[in-house]
Amino acid sequence: MKINQRNLKTAMATHCLSIRELQTLGEVSRMTIVKALNNPTYEPTTKTIGKLANALGVSVEHLTETGEV
Fold it and tell me: In DSSP terms, which residues pair with 3 in a beta bridge?
């Protein structure tokens, strides 16, 4: 699954989170977040998507490109 970069950026902005803060909250690497934000072909694991969604308080569907899990 691909990350919907726009939705990820919007969720980070809504919660006023930097990459470093999301890294801590989501327990994922900085490089993972940078790739998710900037690389349109990057496909993180479902576990990573789940961690990011939980940290941001949004659904997995909200963060995925197709809206499917």
Answer: 64
Q: Is 69 helix (H, G, I), strand (E, B) or coil?
A: coil
Q: How confident is the model at residue 53 (pLDDT cuts 50, 70, 90)?
A: very high
Is 5-63 assigned to CATH 2.60.15.10?
Answer: no
Domain ranges in the chain are: 5-63
C-alpha–C-alpha distance, residues 57 and 40, integer Å: 22
Closest C-alpha among 43, 35, 33 to residue 66: 43
Contacts of 53 (CB under 8 A, 6+ apart): 59, 60, 62, 63
What pTM does this model have? 0.89
Q: How many CA atoms lie within 13 A of 46 on its CB side?
A: 4
